[in-house]
Specification:
heterodimer; A: mainly alpha; ABC transporter involved in vitamin B12 uptake, BtuC; 14 helices; 75% helix; disordered C terminus; B: alpha/beta; Rossmann fold; 2 domains; 17 helices; elongated
Chain lengths: 334, 359
């Protein structure tokens, strides 16, 4: 059976190795001294190469890693708690809310780093709360449909808000920054910025990993979960708060990066089964590797930076289509 | 006798007819002014315009070009809000400029039409957004590009036609032509090995991150570097339609001999001072060789397709090929530009322009 404990452990170790390989490859990939690859020997011989690796690539890789893991973790939690395989932070208004918050702080208050991040976090939370509240008030359809509809509506509202802010923004100073938020990118990452989100994301991801076995219970209906000893409302809220806090933190430095939160939980379930005990760590590993891979392409493929959000969407959507087309054999379904 | 009188009468009638015809030819006919704009449209004006509106985006280029014509302050009815620097410079040229700012860059055609202009100047790419509607309302619109030296030759001539002052247009283009000829003469015979590898980057700091951007190969910044005898290194990165973001890693990989830093929101000299103090930038060979320069400017940076591009070209040539342009006196050039072209007095230039250049 492919879903045995040993098989899952092997897959997890394999994913961890893949992540390490991706990170290792990313460290030595870039545009210096020539496109695509830098010889490790250069680190000893060229001070500029050392500067580039230590101060440009490493913080950026760390930020991409945190971004990918967070979006993947949040996506897994959202999909399980809301019983909906189509939700991700972007679908429930969190990403668009964070982008709106960042844009608002840039245009209205000329905010700098921490102000932008705070505004992004607050509006990210507001996006989730609005989506949840609206879904409860919709009078037709099942929970899944209502949640998706509410999420789409709230995301559209925030997108419209970003559009208005883009329209009134100063074309020289504010507009490029808004475009960055809309397309998502990590080119402005430095050590202070990457480290600024580390506490929130590590705490949130640690909490999600510790609670992963409870996720299986919380994915059940309220009565069943309660009968099995869970406090569904409280525990779900705690998980959502952790997921949204981490998402808002990473989005505040990266802008909106879609698809990672949607695709990686699917890939993890495909490889490891629906059990959150292994699916969640699997999703984190895949998400981290995927984001690092995309960001490495973004800064390596062309002399000019390609926005990360564009690459993540391009590759993510392709993978999503492949997942839909190549359905697993019923006998192998887990 | 009767025949004689008849002959006299016929002769008189003929003579009177000739005089009448001559008089008619001497009377000035009601003529129209025609100007061919950047889109190839022939715009007919009943008389030199007296109520000109400068509208749309990138309007400072239009304003600065129009005010090269001495009677522009009397003819301009309304301006469009631009940056603070643009407003300050416009006020130097036209003390009434602050009161003339009536529009924003996205003001709709109806709002502009309400001012009852007899001519609206717009950048060519504003036609779809606002120009077509103005045309439908029967308002004369003149589209200008003002993005390259070739555009300047054509568009200054267009403005000269529209303002019924082609002599001034020719004089203005003569100024730019002389600079182009001087630079072409100075860089003649250079082979590729004599041309330094040049990087020209725009610095932006939003408070949340610093970005470096390179201009597209078709933009005037690239043209200026090429004309000044340098080899732009960023061509492969800038094939799109706008500024392309590049990281320090790519800049190091290009390994340019010279780096010129543009800053549109403040003094570029401060940015360069900070970059020189940055260990990563200090490790670049160009920085170590002292070849990291702030691109100069006054109210506007001289790299832009503004009327100042001639100053930018001369300054760049002097830095890229210093031996060949040692005789260029930039101070004299500045006085010439602002004095001869804009009619600013030396005291005004000393008080308002030089402090900005020397920041």
């Amino acid at each position: 059976m492919p879903t045995t404990h040993r098989y899952r452990r092997r897959v997890l170790w394999g994913l961890a190795a893949l992540l390490l390989l991706t990170v290792g490859g990313a460290v030595f990939s870039g545009r210096y001294p020539a496109p695509f690859w830098m010889s490790p020997r250069l680190l000893l011989e060229d001070p500029l190469a050392r500067q580039i690796v230590l101060n440009l690539r490493l913080p950026r890789i760390l930020a991409a890693l945190l971004l990918g893991m967070t979006l993947a973790g949040a996506g897994t939690v959202f999909q399980m708690i809301f019983h909906n395989p189509l939700v991700e932070p972007g679908f429930l208004g969190v990403s668009q809310g964070a982008a709106f918050g960042a844009a608002l702080s840039i245009v209205a208050w000329n905010a700098a780093g921490p102000g932008i991040q705070l505004s992004a976090a607050v509006c990210g939370f507001a996006g989730l709360l609005l989506s949840g509240s609206l879904a409860r008030r919709i009078r037709y359809g099942g929970w899944t449909l209502r949640l998706v509809l509410a999420g789409i509506a709230v995301s559209a509202l925030f997108s419209a808000g970003v559009g208005i802010l883009k329209y009134v923004a100063d074309p020289l100073t504010q507009l490029p920054e808004l475009v960055f938020w809309i397309l998502g990118a990590l080119w402005s990452i430095s050590w202070p910025k990457a480290l600024s989100i580390l506490p929130v994301t590590l705490a949130a991801l640690g909490f999600l990993l510790l609670m992963r076995w409870r996720l299986n219970l919380l994915a059940l209906d309220d009565a069943t979960a309660f009968s099995l000893g869970a406090a569904p409302a409280r525990e779900r809220m705690a998980l959502l708060v952790a997921a949204v806090a981490a998402t808002a933190a990473v989005v505040s430095i990266s802008g909106v990066v879609g698809w990672i939160g949607l695709i990686t939980p699917h890939l993890a379930r495909r490889l490891l089964g629906a059990d959150a005990q292994t699916a969640l760590p699997g999703a984190l590993l895949i998400g981290g590797a995927f984001a690092v891979f995309c960001d490495t392409l973004a800064r390596t493929m062309l002399p000019g930076e390609i926005p990360l959000g564009i690459l993540a969407s391009l590759i993510g959507a392709t993978v999503f289509i492949a997942l839909m087309i190549f359905q697993p054999n019923i006998k192998d379904a887990r | 006798m009767i025949q004689l009188w008849l002959r006299r009468i016929v002769l008189l009638v003929l003579a009177w007819s000739l005089v009448a015809c001559a008089a008619q030819q001497a009377t000035p006919a009601p003529s129209t002014i025609t100007a061919t704009d950047a889109l190839g449209r022939i715009v007919e004006l009943p008389a030199p315009p007296e109520r000109i509106v400068i509208g749309g985006r990138a309007n400072f280029m239009l304003t600065d070009a129009l005010y090269l014509f001495p009677d522009a302050p009397d003819r301009v009815l309304a301006l469009t809000r631009a940056t603070q620097q643009a407003a300050a410079f416009a006020q130097l040229l036209d003390p009434a400029a602050p009161d003339k700012v009536r529009f924003v860059s996205d003001s709709p055609a109806e709002e502009i039409a309400a001012a009852q202009p007899d001519l609206v100047l717009l950048k060519s790419y504003m036609r779809d957004a606002v120009g077509t509607t103005l045309e439908q309302l029967g308002i004369s619109v003149l589209y200008l590009d003002l993005e390259t030296p070739e555009h300047y030759e054509r568009d200054l001539a267009t403005l000269g036609q529209a303002l019924d002052n082609p002599a001034r247009a020719a004089e203005l283009w003569g100024y730019y032509r002389a600079i182009l000829d001087r630079v072409a003469q100075g860089t003649a015979g250079l082979d590729e090995t004599q041309k330094p590898r040049v990087l020209l980057i725009q610095y932006t700091d939003s408070g949340d991150g610093i970005a470096f951007r390179v201009p597209p190969v078709t933009w005037i910044q690239t043209t200026l570097v090429t004309l000044a005898g340098g080899q732009p290194v960023w061509g492969e990165a800038a094939q799109g339609g706008g500024w392309a973001t590049v990281n320090l890693e790519q800049i190091a990989a290009w390994n340019p001999d010279q780096i010129y830093v543009i800053n549109y929101t403040g003094p570029a000299s401060e940015v360069v001072a900070n970059l020189r103090a940055d260990p990563q930038w200090a490790a670049l060979p160009a920085a170590q060789a002292g070849q990291l320069y702030p691109f100069p400017g006054d109210f506007f940076s001289w790299d832009q397709p503004d009327t100042r591009w001639g100053l930018g070209l001369l300054w760049l040539a002097q830095h890229i090929q210093p031996e060949r342009f040692a005789d260029v006196d930039m101070q004299a050039e500045v006085y010439r530009f602002f004095g001869d072209l804009y009619g600013l007095e030396r005291a005004v230039i000393d008080a308002e322009i030089w402090p900005l250049i020397q920041r």
